[in-house]
Amino acid sequence: MTDDLRGLAGAIFGPDWVSPLGRAVGVSLRTAQRWAAGESPVPDRIWTAPGLVEAARLAAPELDERLRLVRDYLAAEA
Fold first, then answer.
1. φ, ψ for residue 26, nearest 5 deg
2. Where are the alpha helices (H) located in 1-78, listed in sequence order?
3. Phi and psi (nearest 5°) for 48?
């Protein structure tokens, strides 16, 4: 589950995602660091935390644009 968290949080918050994730879901930086390191399990409630859902909603247009650029690049290479 740590890899899932890294992938999702990295896509939403960028490469320095640990601190913004902690703020978004209302946990301490240390707790978010433990999740990132795989030292503590990520609670199921985190995936539906309002702060994370809102951050994902706000990031969606940028992520969609990135995906479009990748699709265009791959289509041009084919």
1. 75, 35
2. 2-13, 18-25, 29-37, 50-77
3. -115, 15
Cα–Cα distance, 60 to 10 (Å, whole number):
13
Cα(48)–Cα(54) distance, integer angstroms: 10
Q: Is 21 exposed, middle or buried (0-12, 13-18, 19+ CB in 10 A)?
A: buried
Q: What's phi and psi for 43, nearest 5 deg?
A: -65, 145
Quick: pLDDT tens for 49-76.
Answer: 999 999 999 988 888 888 888 888 889 9
Question: Is the pTM of the predicted complex or chain greater than 0.85?
Answer: no
CB 24 within 8 A of CB 66: no
